[in-house]
Structures
1.
Amino acid sequence: MAKKILKFGGTSVGTIERIQHVANIIKKEYDSGSQIIAVVSAMSGKTNELINLSKNIANDFNKRELDVLLSSGEQVTCALLAGALIELKINAKSWLNWQIPILTEGEHSNARIVNMNLDKVNNFLKKGVAVIPGFQGISKNGDITTIGRGGSDATAVAIAKLFNADSCEIYTDVDGVFSTDPNKIPVAKKIEKISFDEMLELSSLGAKVMQSSAVQTAMMYDIPLEVRSTFTDRKGTKIFSQQNIDYTKSVTGVAYSKDDAKITLIGVEDKPGVAANIFEPLNKAQINVDMVIQNISSDQSTTDITFTIKRDVLKKTKEILESNQNIKYKDLTHNDKVAKISIVGAGMVSTPGVTYRMFRGLAEEQINILAISTSEIKLSVIIDEENTLNAVKKLHTIFELN
Ligand code: ADP
Ligand code: ASP
Ligand code: MG
């Protein structure tokens, strides 16, 4: 009997009608003889609504209580879906994080699943469908935790791993993984197959169709995934290891994100140890620096250093740079109206000229590149935020993804 994990995202369970539709999808799979664990997100918009509620109490609402609050979104859909299945005469039952339990480690809002005891669920599967909330867990101390935005994907993959599932299907509001966000660039094309590595890059660089830590776990344990639509019967996108894919194109997809900020330190002394002095206190404060550029100095004694960080730590980063006595510079400028545009493709390794074509294309659109970073299968640039869609469209055309 095949064991299947079916995960349904927020839009898929966004209304009562949609929950009933999801119950019918599950019924079909169940009736064809599979054992089913359904993993659900909160109704679309619910998590944001709860975050906003907490902000009415305090901007930095207590983290423990925030997790208690946010986990309620998934509790609602879990019960509604189990109820809808029962109405279809299917024996169904929901379990919350602490009832299983789903054990997590790490800080509130950003915990990670480390184990779960699936005995109860396993026993129940012989006679019915189990419904489990995504996004939440419980710490060693018994506190409710959440595992990061979009985390229901990670719950589904963790369950697939611990359950030794035969398949893990991610049902969402688009037909699969596209060459870029189909809701922003309508000529985007669905990708039939994509490797874990490429999907991990795309997700980390802004393609929120799959949460990046879920892809990372799937890659680590070689758990194939399928992303498909809740609302159509079309074939989705298969995500698996690279040896199953023939590359005909250099670039597989274009991703973008608008959550970075750029800082430039002007007139930094050009001598050994200065960069370390700048980045060490940032590292201590757990601020992740992404791209770094050091200009060649014109007067041989000073230089400018530009780097990017996440936008939400801009204020904290500036405070550290401005208050640390070991960091000396003439001026500090920042820009938080920037976007990161990335091309991703395992085919890039064997295709010369990808970098040049990307830069030439952006130049043709009069788009200035503010920072660059590369890896074997991706190339990212920072540009002004207002040029985002233009840049994505241009790169999509240049690399023949339309
Ligand atoms: P769910 O609630 O089902 O988890 P998400 O909103 O997290 O769904 O992810 C689906 C959304 O991801 C799509 O509606 C789409 O706008 C966006 N998206 C961004 N990049 C891509 C891409 N490359 N392919 C498909 N969807 C993408
Ligand atoms: N409800 C959570 C969120 O909005 C988790 C998820 O949808 O995957 O981030
Ligand atoms: Mg999601």
2.
Amino acid sequence: MTAQLIDGNALSKQLRAEVAQRAAALRARGIMPGLAVVLVGENQASQVYVRNKVKACEDNGLHSVLEKHPADLSEAALLARVEALNNDPTIHGILVQLPLPAHIDAQKVIEAISPAKDVDGFHVASAGALMTGSAGFWPCTPYGCMKMLESIGYELRGKHAVVIGRSNIVGKPMALMLLQKNATVTICHSATPDLKAMTLQADVIVAAVGKQNVLTADMVKPGAVVIDVGMNRNAQGKLCGDVDFAGVKEVAGYITPVPGGVGPMTITMLLVNTLEAAERS
Ligand code: NAP
């Protein structure tokens, strides 16, 4: 292996220790930072995600409330719950776990969350703040990727970053964050005709597609930094990313593993955002 590993578990541990310290400082001033996690329905993966988020809060000195609602909860009832949480002074961050049942307009629910409590960073006000470089909450997954780059002391100024994927929660905000750090950014997607021609030019590649082996060794410039956001199951049912880790680690300068890479960083940045929300309040 030539690439150095960027260990998301180790970095998370360090950042969570800082969160715990800041949370203790807030508690000493009589403020208990609080996160509300709202789950609608029985989606198996979502249940695991929310459990992990609540546990991460408990482990690091944050207060959390898990609201579980039946799958047939009406959109109006969910909007009313969000409004109640907006007005609850013990809650600093609100997270509505996605996906929501089909009868609920997810974007409408996200827009109902107060931007001051939008710790997922999905509200249009948060997206606008990122776009314009003003204060707001950054979406946790790309924010975690930025922290990983920061952890290796990587200078983005003047580098070429290629982001594969353009979703509102990962690809687009990722590209904006890299741009803000003065990288030259290319965004690739399913209509990009020659992905390899793009990635071969990249100093940094962020793969956020959701397909195994989208990025293989022949597509990577020697020494490039490769961040793998993907979460997929391989033929054996094992968790894997978008990157052919075995091949790419022989070419890249740095690489993130799956599992143990971006995944734990996402929850860590949720804690950071929640704490930030409590501090701002
Ligand atoms: P998404 O909304 O499905 O977006 C996928 C993107 O990939 C789209 O922009 C799509 O292009 C593009 N794409 C699809 N096939 C492609 C191809 N062959 N070549 C280039 N681009 C292609 O997914 P997402 O929500 O951004 O998530 C992406 C992956 O990250 C998933 O595996 C997800 O599970 C994972 N994820 C992980 C975390 C974490 O904490 N580790 C958090 C969030 C997401 P079009 O726009 O043209 O369709």
